[in-house]
Design a protein that fits this description.
heterodimer, A: 357 residues, alpha/beta, FAD/NAD(P)-binding domain, 2 domains, 7-stranded mixed beta sheet, 4-stranded parallel beta sheet, 21 strands, elongated, B: 106 residues, alpha+beta, Ubiquitin-like (UB roll), 5-stranded mixed beta sheet, 5 strands, binds flavin-adenine dinucleotide, binds FE2/S2 (inorganic) cluster, iron-sulfur (chain B), 2Fe-2S_ferredoxin-type (chain B), metal-binding (chain B), iron (chain B), 2 iron, 2 sulfur cluster binding (chain B)
Chain lengths: 357, 106
């Protein structure tokens, strides 16, 4: 896989404002193919995704599952499709910014200004929203009053490690995130307790081994059970109520907790896109079908995020949308340039761009 | 036809006709049974089609696969009778099946 072209979170060492022809929001299959189509018309792209990897739904929700309706691939898994799209985009050297959510999108002179939650800023001539079903966001367990504790005692990711220093930390879940944070917070927290519904973990074997070591020497406590209630006031968590097996009985009891990290997987939420002043139709961005442009000229929307009469939320439809979008984007990035229709099979100019001749 | 009954958390009963080969989740969605969200469309990757299988039916529906157990980790209020309804395929022996829908799909 073309991992060498993937750049990390982009905070350290990144310039104050990154200038680019095109900024693609979302590194799902459609965003990745947009890199290719834009590349063919000489438009360079930066790509942002809140996930820590490319592939969107294909990589996050069904990497191992076969897809049967990608043209010319009778069967291909979500991860294999992602890997091939990356390979196809590779000649155009996209820059990826992972682990960041685009918060704001504003029109400025000569283009758009975009800012992420990590403060990375971009100035782009065109913006391509390929945001699928929205940002992948951690699931909130349906516990009464949990909203009131969020940001003060309940967190879904560790952004500032100091918030956990010398605290009684409770981590819920049995996957990689839960185990990674159990291992990472154990040295600095007052105590770390891992709660999971069963004594089995679907995480990297290495993490499971490390966890077992910490459990056997008593530096981490494991409780088999499930959360039923949060106890505390004004955002300050005091304890949680757990239900689980204790000596053969199913009991409910309280466990001290000042910080709670629940890991129940991810779900897609529209997120900040709703605030960008674009015409929305039931959480989808309305576009025309000649350019796949939104109500704001220069901002395009392709893939699952858009809507138009006859829209099908299929990967192949997103690919078509990317091709037409790129033609329209070219007219904005290179005004006055005559566009010539060419085939990749026969055009020496396209083949040079692809690096095959 | 295979009759299946879904009981909502509030007690509302939905008895609907399913077809052999269809999953229990698909049957619920086709009949718009509330409380089966099925965000991922049956790919065993969302855990929002969680149900409790009545004890009398547990043997016939079988045990969850390892993949399903892993995904159940993401469900809320998981019990010994918990299953993901997209992983239960209807067959003639399941005629009369009764399942309960949890209060929340996480
Ligand atoms: C289980 C399952 C099976 C499927 N099977 C098929 C199939 O067989 N055939 C088919 O054609 N389709 C299938 N699909 C649908 C297909 O996966 C989608 O159509 C496709 O992923 C859409 O691609 P996309 O690039 O538009 O969006 P996504 O894949 O949804 O990617 C969008 C990305 O944008 C990111 N994002 C959104 N907002 C922001 C923001 N503000 N800041 C940063 N990042 C953001 C998201 O985190 C996400 O990674 C299936 C879907 C599922 C769930
Ligand atoms: S529908 Fe998503 S896991 Fe069953």
């Amino acid at each position: 896989m073309a991992l060498d072209m993937i750049v990390g979170s982009g905070v350290d060492g990144a310039p104050a404002e990154i200038e680019t022809d095109a900024l693609i929001i979302g590194a799902g299959p459609v965003g990745l193919f947009a890199v290719f189509e834009l590349g063919l018309v000489d438009i360079k792209a930066h790509v942002i995704d809140i996930l820590d990897k490319p592939g969107g739904q294909c990589a996050e929700l069904y990497p191992e599952k076969p897809i049967y309706d990608i043209p010319a691939h009778p069967t291909i898994t979500g991860q294999a499709l992602t890997d091939r799209l990356l390979e196809q985009a590779r000649p155009f050297e996209p820059t990826f910014h992972f682990g960041q959510r685009v918060e704001s999108l504003k029109k400025v002179d000569g283009g758009f200004e975009v800012e992420t939650d990590l403060g990375t800023r971009f100035r782009a001539k065109v913006v391509v929203v390929a945001a699928g079903g929205g940002s992948f966001t951690p699931k909130r367990p349906p516990l009464a009053g949990i909203e009131g504790f969020e940001g003060a005692s309940v967190f879904y990711a560790v952004r500032k490690i100091d918030a956990f220093r010398d605290k009684a930390v409770l981590i819920v879940g049995g996957g990689d995130s839960a185990l990674d944070w159990t291992l990472n917070l154990q040295p600095i927290a007052k105590s770390v307790t891992l709660i999971h519904r069963r004594d089995e973990f679907r995480a990297a074997p290495d993490s499971v081994n490390k966890l077992r070591e910490l459990l056997s020497d008593g530096s981490v406590r494991f409780i088999q059970g499930q959360l039923t209630k949060l106890n505390g006031d004004s955002g300050a968590l005091r304890s949680v109520t757990i239900r689980g097996p204790v000596g053969g009985l199913d009991l409910e009891y309280e466990v001290e907790a000042e910080r709670l990290l629940p890991f129940f997987g991810l779900t897609m939420k529209l997120g900040p896109i709703a605030n960008w002043g674009l015409n929305l139709n039931e959480n989808q961005i309305a576009v025309d079908t000649a350019r796949f442009e939104t109500s704001e000229p220069g901002i395009f929307a392709i893939g699952d995020i858009n809507t138009y009469p006859g829209k099908l939320k299929l990967i192949l439809s997103g690919f078509h949308e990317a091709a037409l979008m790129a033609q329209a984007a070219q007219k904005i990035v290179y005004p006055g340039k005559r566009s010539v229709f060419q085939y990749t099979t026969s055009s020496s100019s396209l083949q040079r761009k692809l690096g095959v001749i | 036809m295979i009759k299946v009954t879904f009981i909502e958390h509030n007690g509302t009963v939905h008895t609907v006709d399913g077809e052999p080969g269809q999953t229990l989740m698909e049957t619920a969605v086709k009949h718009a049974v509330p409380g089966i969200v099925a965000e991922c469309g049956g790919a065993c990757s969302c855990a929002t089609c969680h149900v409790y299988v009545d004890d009398t039916w547990k043997e016939k529906t079988g045990a969850p696969s390892e993949m399903e157990e892993d995904m159940l980790d993401f469900a809320f209020d998981v019990r010994a009778s918990s299953r993901l309804s997209c992983q239960i395929r209807l067959k003639p022996e399941l005629d009369g099946l009764v399942v309960r829908i949890p209060e929340f799909q996480n």
